[in-house]
Amino acid sequence: MKKWQLVGSTIVGASLLLGACGGGNGSSDKHKDVEGKVKGDGSSTVGPIIEKLNEKFAKDYPNVTVSNSTAGTGGGFEKFIAGSTDFSNASRPIEPEEKQKLKEKGIKYNEFKIAQDGVTITVNKDNDFVKELDKKQLKEIYSGKAKTWKDVNSKWPAKKIKAFSPDQSHGTFDFFTEEIMDKGDIKADKNADTNTIVKSVENNKQGIGYFGYNFYEQNKDKLKEVKIKDENGKLTEPTKKTIQNGSYALSRPLFTYTNAEKLKDNKGLQAFTKFLLKDEGKSAESAGFVALPKKDYKDQQDKLDKILEKDNKDKDSKKDDKKKDDK
Fold this sequence. Notes:
With 327 residues, this protein is of the alpha/beta class. The chain folds into two domains: 184 residues, Periplasmic binding protein-like II (D-Maltodextrin-Binding Protein, domain 2, 3-Layer(aba) Sandwich), CATH 3.40.190.10; 130 residues, 3-Layer(aba) Sandwich (D-Maltodextrin-Binding Protein, domain 2), CATH 3.40.190.10. Helices cover 41% and strands 23% of the residues. It has 13 helices and 15 strands. The strands form three sheets. A seven-stranded mixed sheet has the order 1-2-4-3-5-15-6. Strands 10-9-11-7-12 form a five-stranded mixed sheet. Strands 8-13-14 form a three-stranded mixed sheet. α2 runs parallel beside α3. The longest helix is centred in the last third of the chain and has 33 residues.
């Protein structure tokens, strides 16, 4: 288990700063000619995937330094819009207002899906009555309308609910707000650190919380998963199969966004993005998430190849134009 160092409100994985020191035992000579610095930020859900990936990448590319922070999806996009990062990780799609800000800054971007996740609802291990919830009941809990479990289901005890949620910097918060709250306010104890939410549910007998599937997988001996009814009344639960095929009611894709101009010029970023897609979700699986179908990775590798091919043609065209001007 990697240790995480808290820096201000941003969690930084110490093992993500591997590129500069990756030339030790087991490193490959074949990519020593590729150099560069690559900087990312964003989703704390995606962070463990990048960490696992970078452990492998650093061995093959010892002269590329990749650093990644986890300020949350929203916080990551703020830095991406400011132009201070090369890639931005997200546990939700980029929002229209973020697209507009990037447009105003003249920043073009590329979107890549890298894994699949299922937002998992959990209650305290000693809770012996909450086995399933529908989206309406979840909204009642997280809007504050339901104060006790009896308010949710008349057969349940009149014990006060203690609801926990990621804060507004998280894409998981945005996803839950969209899917469950109809964009209404979430009234719960909010925290930037997902591990704190896990601990809060573990320590509160009337606790309920939600977070990415990998956090549940890592703590399933301490928490109880709740099944979710979809709009058709079908009971669903998060498993690798239901998350990958999207049949789980709270399935979602995970993304990495690259700055198009920086991708064009930064060989390290090119190598890292290629490595990410060719990994085909192995790092995501080892981090507790679910890989996309292999065809999806192949389609995105083709997409990246076309982007880089076009960039090279544009560069060659500019060189030819410059030669003509010099003559």
